[in-house]
Design a protein that fits this description.
alpha/beta, 2 domains, 23% strand, Rossmann fold, six-stranded antiparallel beta sheet, 303 residues, 13 strands
Length: 303
């Protein structure tokens, strides 16, 4: 009955046992991109270092990013195309999960990714531009750094708007007694700005996909009943490790296959509805069992 009722609300539940587990959940771990946010980032600023124009910087970055499927990469590519910039041919493309991408453009090696990704290659970022980047991160924006031939070329900032429904959903989840933990590959400053604006309890930033899995494993080992809500390929191991994996219906097939619950609308309010449903179903089951026990107890002396 509960599974059917959930389907009518846009909550697809794999089996009835999931409702029993969901009723006991005390912690919800959430990814940021596509779960808390719209998952449709857009370029907001293009800040070039000496020797590069903004158009040069965007064209170089987009040329490499066109080979990446990451949402932030696609935002850069879309921005370049909107400006009618011709993307260059790229050879030796490589993607480093949780860090960035590299490729050769016009004979020069290009790196596009996090500040740490560039610094690992001994590329220094100017203090002035680093300070500007920090200010944007504190506004909740993502920052993508670019280097060409071992020299820092500038950075791009990208914003991914928070879904209108997210703040309300988190408030209601708190009212239901859940603790909310955001686990994201984003920079610490960006992640904390988003978490603060949404009143999220705990933040793990700069994490790689395997770290999400390990975080959930640690929470479970500490005695928590954990649900994980995510939408990306990178979320699949964490979704599978959680007591209840919850996939956004707007997300990837891999995430949906790894989860026990799918929210058709891709909206965290669906988690609120799913928990309400699980508690209602389990309450009815307990009441029915008590009724049956009482009825049988009364019937024994009569027999």
């Amino acid at each position: 009955v509960g599974v059917g009722r959930g389907a009518k609300q846009g909550i697809l539940i794999k089996n009835a046992e999931v409702l029993e587990t969901l009723e006991k959940v005390d912690t919800l771990v959430v990814d940021k991109t596509g779960t808390l946010t719209e998952g449709q980032p857009r370029l907001t600023e293009c800040v070039s270092a000496a020797g590069y124009s903004e158009a040069d910087l965007l064209q170089i970055a987009a040329s490499v990013e066109q080979h990446s499927e990451h949402p932030l990469s696609q935002a850069v590519v879309v921005a370049a195309k909107e400006r009618d910039l011709k993307l260059a041919e790229v050879s030796d493309f490589d993607s480093v999960t949780g860090a960035g991408v590299t490729g050769t453009v016009n004979g020069k090696r290009v790196l596009v990714g996090s500040a740490a990704f560039l610094q690992e290659q001994s590329i220094s970022i100017s203090d002035e531009l680093s300070s500007q980047a920090d200010q944007l991160r504190e506004q909740g924006q993502g920052v993508i750094f670019v280097a060409v031939a071992k020299e820092f070329a500038g950075f791009l900032s990208v914003t991914d708007p928070i879904k209108e429904s997210t703040a309300e959903a988190i408030r209601k989840l708190h009212e239901l007694g859940l603790s909310i933990v955001m686990v994201t590959g984003d920079n610490e400053k960006t992640a904390r700005a988003v978490a603060k604006s949404l009143n999220i309890d705990d933040v793990e930033a700069g994490v790689k996909p395997q770290d999400k899995y390990e975080k959930i494993k640690a929470l479970r080992q500490a005695g928590h009943k954990v649900a994980m809500a995510g939408d990306g390929i990178n979320d699949a191991p964490a979704l599978a490790e959680a007591d209840v994996g919850i996939a956004m219906g707007t997300g990837t097939d891999v995430a949906i296959e790894s989860a026990e619950v799918t929210l058709v609308k891709g909206d965290l309010r669906g988690v609120v509805d799913a928990i309400h449903l699980s508690r209602l179903v389990m309450k009815n089951i307990h009441q029915n069992l008590l009724f049956a026990f009482g009825y049988n107890a009364l019937g024994i002396p009569i027999a």
